[in-house]
Amino acid sequence: MSVRIATATTAAAAVLGVGGLLNPAQPQTADAPDRRTGPVVVAHRGASGYAPENTLAAVDAAKALGIDWVENDVQRTKDGVLVVVHDTDLKRTTDVEEVFPDRAPWAVKDFTAAEIAQLDAGSWFGERFAETRVPTLTQFLHRLDRNRQKLLLEIKSPASYPGIERDILRVLRKEGWLGPSHVRNRLVIQSFGADSIKEVHALRPDVTTGFLGTPEVTDLPSYAAFTDQINPSYTTIGADYVAAVQRLKGPHGKRLRVNTWTVDSAADAAKVHAYGVDGIISNHPDVVRDATH
């Protein structure tokens, strides 16, 4: 860990302890990249460099750092509840092997929401996060609303959860996240599954969508029919690719945007900023912001 990141970690922890804010929200870019304000910075699974990923603590860590946009991963439990967790199994980020030792391979879809709610999703990251829980999507949305933050929602492994797009939209609607203000300014739904994003666009054509990946340049026009963003790994792109994406217009008549992931160093942030990306997704969003704004 670099001295810079370690210092940021200490600062974030101190702020979280008193519930304050380090910086005001960053201004968002308009339809064309704004070289003065820099790219939009998105906290990957929350500010997951400073708190356990995809937890409410990580949402609050992003807020403490002055980061508006939060990315998360959504899956579905055995009894149909949407939960926020990245891996399709629960081993890496919870104590599921201790609590349910006979339930291998511990897939998210094999557990009820009540069972997952018993798990410790924070101790693996640090003792101060012991007893942190896996949040439901509803709980996650409530925290974002409380913090006045915005959501880049990833539909995780949609092929494992038939119909999850409708389920997600149902929860978003119930919690007020499909109203005009949220849809216009505070919500993007993305996935590695093109068919999943096509389904979201078909069900709610007003919602902004993103495709996770790096399609061939020749294939980009077909993606522009159903997605507003192409969101690739930063290791797969250059300035020419970013420009090729941005030359196209998406289903809402605006140019396609590029949000790249997962960028954690100042050097890499400066590099992709020079490519002209619209957004950068990071576990250390403050490091990226300081390098690009």
Order of helices and strands: HEHEEHHHEHHEHEHEHEHEH
Kindly provide the radius of gyration, computed on alpha-carbon positions and rounded to a whole number of angstroms: 18 Å
**How helix-rich are the residues, as a percent range?**
25-40%
Low-confidence stretches: 1-30
- What is the typical, i.e. mean, pLDDT? 91
Give the N-terminus to C-terminus distance in angstroms: 23 Å
Strand order of the largest sheet: 1-2-4-5-6-7-8-9
Q: How would you describe the shape?
A: globular
Q: Give the number of DSSP strands.
A: 9
| Most strands sheet | 8 strands, parallel, barrel
Structural class: alpha/beta
Helix run count: 12
Q: Proportion of β residues? A: 5-15%
Describe the structure.
There is one protein chain. This protein has twelve helices and nine strands. The chain has an eight-stranded parallel β-barrel, surrounded by six helices. Helix content is 35%, strand content 14%. The model is unreliable at 1-30 (pLDDT under 50). The chain is α/β, with parallel strands linked by helices and 293 residues long. The chain is globular and about 50 Å long. Helix 2 (56-64) runs parallel beside helix 5 (137-147) and helix 11 packs across helix 12. The two termini are 23 Å apart. Strand 2 and strand 3 form a beta hairpin.
What's the arrangement of secondary structure elements?
Elements: H1 3-18, E1 40-43, H2 56-64, E2 69-76, E3 82-84, H3 96-99, H4 113-117, H5 137-147, E4 150-155, H6 164-174, H7 180-185, E5 187-191, H8 194-203, E6 208-212, H9 220-223, E7 229-231, H10 239-246, E8 257-260, H11 266-275, E9 279-282, H12 285-292
Parallel strand pairs: 1-2, 1-9, 2-4, 4-5, 5-6, 6-7, 7-8, 8-9
Antiparallel strand pairs: 2-3
Helix pairs in contact: 2-5, 11-12
